[in-house]
What does this fold into?
Amino acid sequence: KAYSAEWFLRCAYSSANFETGSDLVDIAYGWLNYQIEHHMFPDMTPLQYRKLQPLVKSVCKKHGVQYIQQNGFYRTWKMLRCAVGDDKMIQCDA
It folds into this structure.
């Protein structure tokens, strides 16, 4: 069910953010660097995601929920390695 506790957990565990927080970085990624917040609240504007991101990250930390935020180039490299079988995704016990 949308906007239930399970909904937010699924959004956090199934998404990953790239670097966030500045106009330059956000424009470079075309605002696609706020994937966790976007999946939680798909109707918000990009500027709202930037304001919401620190709160979502701190709530996840407080409750021990995985929140992945990595460099975009590193994340792309890791995904390519997973796609060809040279690496594995992190397993989640949620």
Notes: The two ends are 17 Å apart (CA to CA). The mean pLDDT is 90.
